[in-house]
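Internal tracking record. Fields below are filled automatically when a chain is submitted to the structure queue. Please do not edit lines marked as system-generated. If the sequence contains nonstandard residues, flag them in the REMARKS field before resubmitting.
Queue: standard
Priority: normal
Entity type: single polypeptide chain
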Amino acid sequence: GKGGVIVLINEKRIRLSGAALISLLRSYSQSDLEEIQILTTPPAKYEAEGNAGVLNIVMKKVKNDFFGGSLSPSFGVRRDLLRYGLNTSLNYKKDKVTASLQLGGGKADYDGHMDTYRYYPKQSSYYSSQTYYKGKNPYLNLRAGLDYAFTPELSMGFNVSYAPEEDNTRRENDSRDWRVLSSGARELLRLLPGVADETNKSRYTTANVHLEKTFKSAPQRRLSWDADYVGYRSQEGRNFTSRGLKPNGTPIPGSDFHFDALTDQHTDSYITSLDYLTPLGKGTLGFGAKGTWTRTTNRSDYDAKSSMGERHDKIIFDEHVYALYADLKYPLSDKWNLRTGLRMEYTHTAGENNGRQLKHLRSYLNIFPTLFLGYNPSDRHAFSLNGTVRLNRPHFGQLSPFASYENQYTFMRGKEDLRAGKQAQLTLGYTFLGALNFQLGGRYLWDGIIQVIRLDPKTNKGSYTHDNAEKALTFSLENSFFFNRVSFFQTYISQRLWYADSKVNTEATPTYGGSSFGYGVNLNNTFFFNRSKTFQGTCYFYYRTPSYAWGIRSGHTIAAGGGLAYTLLQGKLRIAMNANNLLCNKSLMDIETPNYRMHVVNENSVPTCTLRLTYSFGASIEGKSERKSNQELRSRM
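SYSTEM-GENERATED OUTPUT FOLLOWS
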């Protein structure tokens, strides 16, 4: 039921773009893992953003001097398209020095369909747009870290990372206008075939310096300081050309459409934080402060040959966030356990649009409580109650109000004065024997940031504009079960039954959305084919009924796949083959208002097969992975 996940490695928070994050995580070998800790409610220490849980991946500790690493090539097929990658890691420890290097890269070819159908009953008009796209996605991820222990209780280090990525996409679009006859049949009025080429180059650059002090007299006491820089660059070049044709193929004068556009996002963030953890009776108390200073510049340019005319726009947005927090973890008794926290954030925003000062931006102060109360009457039973209030801040690209055209009928834009959406959540849980779990929860979202869809029945022009327009209320009952009582098989089953009421409403848009019950089930099986468990197979299945979210009704979702893995050379070499989306379906979405109905068909989940080899050498390492301080900013870039 979570909207995302916060990934920590040895309590150091990481976040990269999709391909780069996967590349970094895959650079770690299974043999390096000590345990994976799961926390469903993030403490107040972390930014009050998103509806995420926490995964902390703990690496094995090795005190001896060593040098080691891993190498992992992969090769995959998606229909007739190829994808390949190579991930490697090197780890070194000698006396007081600990160093690590991760390098990953590859290329993924992709394709898919996106079809949109609009119907205007009052105008008796119908519009269809069918798009086929195909592209290539080369990517690279480099991260290096160095730590020096001045004493067993005092260490200092730094991390740097660089992750460039490129998307080259070609879109072929077939748009058509129809008249709906009284009989219900459709009469073709004109065709608008079009072709687009898009190149999006982006990169993350980060740097971190950190200082950690522990205390021999109190092992749980720790003082840490971080300073970070996070830079993001994205430059997208797009061109589109279409022609207007009569049903017999004759050109329609004045109906051609063309543009050449360049959009650019430039974001720089500077972050510093100070955290202190100390024993308090039988528990621990943590508190700290954090400051974040961010400037984003968004540019949008259309050349003089574009059908909408020459345009040059620029917006600058500044955001300063100052935070104080306190976290308390305390056993109330042998059976009761308390984790609670309070976070206070002051946010200041300012900016200018084409040199004009944005005077309607405002600063605000928010308080965010977190609570987890656990009750364990025996080893067989565990009860829990947890609640949070969270923010969903806008991505920096969503603050650009300049139109980005897809074709003559559709364009997207952001909004310069977007506010942070807020959500409150409360969950009651029960666990039996650590394997059977039930959770009953409720969530309320207000000022939710979504793309509001506005269609003009007279012109068929459609705009997708980010706005604080969603209110959603969700009640859910979740159940999960883990079975591993036999040596050759284990399974994890999770189910979720929920009721969701999602509405989208602005002053300029009729309300759309709806309410519905939904059900989802997720099944993961692992089979062990020998006693040593070095040869194993996996299979998964996922299904979800139609439901409402973001004001849109989505259709059924089905996904299934499996894999085989074999480990040899005393665990140093692992060969894995996976087949994903062997069973899958197209994504269907519907919106209905009194003025129009829109139906969208999206096909991007297709069968994909991957072969991966992982060879580990040398000794394991307790790596100083990328720090946690900058993850929240990356998720918004």
